[in-house]
């Protein structure tokens, strides 16, 4: 992937799009020059998510991933910078600190309004235009579209949440972005396959801007976010190396989850619902 690309899009043949908005690691030179050593470390990356989901192409899925780091702009935040978790600590559209609250920029080098608008134009809008277009293409082909938001995060971040995060954090915006039944089935499958790895639905992470905005079951677009605790597949300290034994245990279950999600047919659900409410003729 060349650094002049804003994103990479692979178009699959099936109904699923996998979006990985925080996997990028590239820092453009003009931005890199303004970052502190902490910012240059890009510690809050969703490390190796693209490797974890590399099987998705074989399932016929499309995938979309950015080139740039989330420290350039957070593609999973609204363009107006609104806080998706009111009353809780978070990082914004243009992050100024790490998850731990450590400044990302050298003193006096934070982006001004003009720079923020430039980044919106250069990075945020193209990614979202591509996401919208791919969902529209999938829906035109299949009659519905499925969106899987692939994320990961360190398991312990006191500034963001108490204690240790569950390994599997499914989010559907409290049921607004995806059929409740399929979300619960994914949760149950995870709990059955990996009972020693805690899994929750709509816990601390309920789905970010992408899940909440594009998931619309009434329009036959179902979106679910999975936030993985990184200790389930890698070392959570630099150099953030993959743990092959953990990956070998986790990856087959991720594949099963995507296969199960792909097997969900919203039109079948709608037909079943219609049949249930039919009134027998007198």
UniProtKB/TrEMBL annotation:
Cited SUPFAM superfamilies: Zn-dependent exopeptidases (SSF53187)
E.C. numbers: 3.5.1.68
Recorded coiled-coil stretches: none
Pfam families, A to Z: FGase
GO-annotated molecular function: N-formylglutamate deformylase activity
Keywords: Hydrolase
Keyword Hydrolase: yes
This protein's record includes keyword Hydrolase: yes
Domain of life: Bacteria
Family matches, as NCBIfam families: hutG_amidohyd
Protein name: N-formylglutamate deformylase
Gene that specifies this protein: hutG
